[in-house]
C-alpha cells in the first residue's frame, strides 16, 4: 500500500517561513494528483495547494501569493514553501494524493498522510 509521510512542521513566528515535505512510498504505484490540505480545531479541512494531473496548480484563496507548491516526480515527493506566515495559518497540514496501485490488478484510491502541526505564534 502507498503511504504518505509529512515532515517539517513546527513553531514559527509571524511573518516567518517554513517548508513542508511529503514523501510517498510503496511497492508499485503512480501518483496522479498530489497536494496539501489543512485543518484547525473546530474547522473543516480546506485546500491549501494542489498539483493537478494536467500539471497545473491550485491554491486556496487565503494562501495565494504566500505559499508555493512544488513536486519532484523522481523522488515521489511534494513540497510546500510557506512565507509571510500568519497566526491564522496555524493548523495540522495533511498531504493528500490520488494514486494507482498494483502491478497485476490496478486500482485507484485517495491516500492521506498522518499530518504535521504548524504553529504560528510569537
Describe this structure in words.
By secondary structure, this protein is an all-beta fold. The chain is 0% helix and 57% strand. The chain has no helices and 11 strands. The strands form 2 sheets. Strands 2, 4, 5, 6, 9, 10 and 11 form a 7-stranded mixed sheet that branches. Strands 1-3-8-7 form a 4-stranded antiparallel sheet, with no helix packed on it. A hairpin with a 6-residue loop joins strand 4 and strand 5 (46-51). The model has no long low-confidence stretch (mean pLDDT 95).
Radius of gyration from CA coordinates = 15 Å
Structural class label: mainly beta
Major sheet attributes: 7 strands, mixed
Which stretches are low in confidence, meaning pLDDT under 50 for 5 or more residues running? none
Count of strand segments:
11
Helix content: under 10%
Instruction: Specify the number of helices.
Output: 0
How do the helices and strands line up, and which of them pair or pack?
Elements: E1 3-7, E2 10-12, E3 18-25, E4 29-39, E5 46-51, E6 57-59, E7 67-72, E8 77-82, E9 91-101, E10 107-112, E11 116-120
Parallel strand pairs: 2-11
Antiparallel strand pairs: 1-3, 3-8, 4-5, 4-9, 5-6, 7-8, 9-10, 9-11
Structural descriptors:
122 residues, mainly beta, four-stranded antiparallel beta sheet
Amino acid at each position: 500500500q502507498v503511504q504518505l509521510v509529512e515532515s517539517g512542521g513546527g513553531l514559527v513566528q509571524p511573518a516567518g517561513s517554513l517548508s513542508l515535505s511529503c514523501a510517498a512510498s510503496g511497492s508499485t504505484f503512480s501518483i496522479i494528483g498530489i497536494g496539501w490540505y489543512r485543518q484547525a480545531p473546530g474547522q473543516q479541512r480546506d485546500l491549501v495547494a494542489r498539483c493537478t494531473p494536467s500539471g497545473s496548480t491550485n491554491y486556496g484563496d487565503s494562501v495565494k501569493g504566500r505559499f508555493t507548491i512544488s513536486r519532484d516526480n523522481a523522488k515521489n515527493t511534494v513540497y510546500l514553501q510557506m512565507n509571510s506566515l500568519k497566526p491564522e495559518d496555524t493548523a495540522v497540514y495533511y498531504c493528500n494524493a490520488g494514486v494507482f496501485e498494483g502491478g497485476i490488478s490496478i486500482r485507484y484510491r485517495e491516500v492521506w498522510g498522518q499530518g504535521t502541526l504548524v504553529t504560528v505564534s510569537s
